[in-house]
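Sequence, please.
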């Protein structure tokens, strides 16, 4: 049986992007693009539960996981910083599975887990899209339950 190709977005899915962005805006309201600050992406905190589910995906023979993330056009260093974040939090195995792409519609696979269902080509993705942060998938626990067929605990 062929493993399911799963793409997982980084910002606001694996990493706490919006929370950091808002904090930087409060600290420096004159800065229009907080994500342009050196170190912004590499300092993001992981979302609760994200790291353990990603490790579980990688070790499961039924899945072929990748991280797919759009670059910030306001921070050319984001390419490097996102890669460093992946290495620090998920290890070299995921560095080799990192795809930085502006149009996610070019990806071919079975599942895309993203906080947006359109805007960066997600609407052209041929597989299934799970919207992270939605009612059905509010957190990594709900994603894990659906991925691995775990019965939710009452």
């Amino acid at each position: 049986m062929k493993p399911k190709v799963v793409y997982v977005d980084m910002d606001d899915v694996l990493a706490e992007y919006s929370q950091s962005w808002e904090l930087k805006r409060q600290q420096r309201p004159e800065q229009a693009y907080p994500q342009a600050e050196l170190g912004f992406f590499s300092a993001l905190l992981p979302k609760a539960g994200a790291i353990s589910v990603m490790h579980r995906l990688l070790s499961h023979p039924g899945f072929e996981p990748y991280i797919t993330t759009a670059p910030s056009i306001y921070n050319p260093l984001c390419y490097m910083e996102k890669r460093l974040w992946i290495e620090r939090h998920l290890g070299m195995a995921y560095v080799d599975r990192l795809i930085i792409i502006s149009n996610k519609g070019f990806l071919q696979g079975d599942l895309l887990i993203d906080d947006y269902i359109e805007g960066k080509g997600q609407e052209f993705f041929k597989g299934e899209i799970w919207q992270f942060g939605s009612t059905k998938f509010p957190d990594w626990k709900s994603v894990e339950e659906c991925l691995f067929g775990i019965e939710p605990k009452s």
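The radius of gyration is 15 Å.
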